[in-house]
Amino acid sequence: MTTTLHRKDQSLALPIEPDPGKRKLSTAKAMQEAISQRMARDESVFVMGEDVGPYGGIFSSTTGLIDRFGPERVLDTPISETAFIGLGIGAAVEGMRPIVELMFADFFGVCMDQIYNHMAKIHYESGGNVRVPMVLMMAAGGGYSDGAQHSQCLWGTFAHLPGMKVVVPSNPYDAKGLMTAAIDSDDPVVFVFHKGVMGLGWMSKNDRSIGAVPEAEYIVPIGKARVAREGTDVTIVTLSLSVHHSLDVAEKLASEGISVEVIDLRSLVPLDREAIVRSVSKTGRLVVVDEDYQSFGLSGEVIAVVAEHDPSLLKRVSRVCVPDVPIPYAHALEYAVLPTAARIEAAVRNVVAT
Amino acid sequence: MTDVLFPLMSGKADATGVIVTWFVESGDQVTPSTLIAEVAVDKVDAEVYPEISGVITLLVEESKEVPQGAVIAQVT
């Protein structure tokens, strides 16, 4: 076994994120384009998962790929997540660059040993000699009455376990650039896409799930947060669909003279701690918005980052997450637990009040 | 000037469709390789590209139901 088949990390300098241009895509199409462009240039890249072939992925992450690259590089698998994720890990260890789709993040329970004991640990267990250049992508999130076993985010669970990068794009531009970076990564990347940012007509569609995307290949560096909106009174640290709700709240409150800064983390691992501290140093007030469960997760971690750096920075802090209950099926109950714009707005008003 | 039609996607001629997403705005320059819209009939999606290059004018709002074959835009 050698590692010479794998690309080396090219440079410590972060790549430049190109101007988005004018052409618009949905997040789903941006992901498809990233995968397609890398497959075209690198025969070691292939796609595997349940219904990723003719169906195109149930949330359209792989639409059209089988038409272009055929069934030998776009493989529909049986319903056995342990088997096909294990197959992906083996292929990655042998020098391929698999992109494996776990249909819902919620399904990790049946295949977690492959993910966290093998995919995430082989590099460490081999003394750094064996790399696992694999992308494990999965759909996450609720809001469409799909019940407690099909609506969870769970990115905090993957981020808690060492050995995996965890990226969570909120928009088409980042989705393409982060997918390209994930494919290029010599380490395993968990790529979590919220169904509500994909721009699908049959889901409730978010305006910001359609956006400008460069046609050429480009990389959004994994581990670098984005200031989605600049502000001075309060910082919202958030990710994925909650970025859009937070921006809606920021726009609304701007008319009342409340200046809200919105930080889109874009990845949990690595976590851009500098970006969090930089923003809170300016505002002194922090609201963490996360559609994952509240306790033992991302929101507590973000607050701890600031507290460990300098607790005197924090005048007020609040978090808007899913309380520690299963996601309800009933629409009204589901929206009572999701981090809606109304809950975010209330939290922001509360922390700027004193 | 060329009409852009809602594609015929369902064997049921009276089945209506919907413009899921306009990826362009009226006044934009388009070519036959410009993805201008995603449309759907019964949750089946299709992409729409113009036949000629030119300046596009959109005639139907997003999310609105239209008959298959309807003129949804014009390119001049």
Give the CATH H-level superfamily of chain B.
RNA polymerase II/Efflux pump adaptor protein, barrel-sandwich hybrid domain
Shape of chain B: elongated
Q: Which pair has the most extensive contact?
A: A-B, 14 and 12 residues
Reading the helices and strands of chain B in chain order gives: EEEEEEEE
**Number of DSSP helices of chain A?**
12
CATH topology of chain B: OB fold (Dihydrolipoamide Acetyltransferase, E2P)
Walk me through what this model shows:
- The complex is a heterodimer of chains A (354) and B (76).
- With 354 residues, chain A is of the alpha/beta class.
- Chain A has 12 helices and 14 strands.
- Chain A is 34% helix and 20% strand.
- In chain A, strands 3-2-4-5-7-6-12 form a 7-stranded mixed beta sheet, with helices on both faces. Chain A has a 5-stranded mixed beta sheet with strand order 9-11-10-13-14, sandwiched between helices.
- In chain A, α8 links the parallel β10 and β11.
- The longest helix of chain A is centred in the first third of the chain and has 15 residues, at 27-41.
- The N and C termini of chain A lie far apart (61 Å).
- Helix content of chain B is 0%, strand content 47%.
- Chain B has one domain: OB fold (Dihydrolipoamide Acetyltransferase, E2P), CATH 2.40.50.
- Chain B is mainly beta and 76 residues long.
- The model of chain B has no long low-confidence stretch (mean pLDDT 91).
- In chain B, β4 and β5 (44-48) form a beta hairpin.
- In chain B, the strands form 2 sheets. A 4-stranded antiparallel beta sheet of chain B has the order 1-8-6-3, with no helix packed on it. Chain B has a 4-stranded antiparallel beta sheet with strand order 5-4-2-7, with no helix packed on it.
- At the A-B interface, β1 of A face β2 of B.
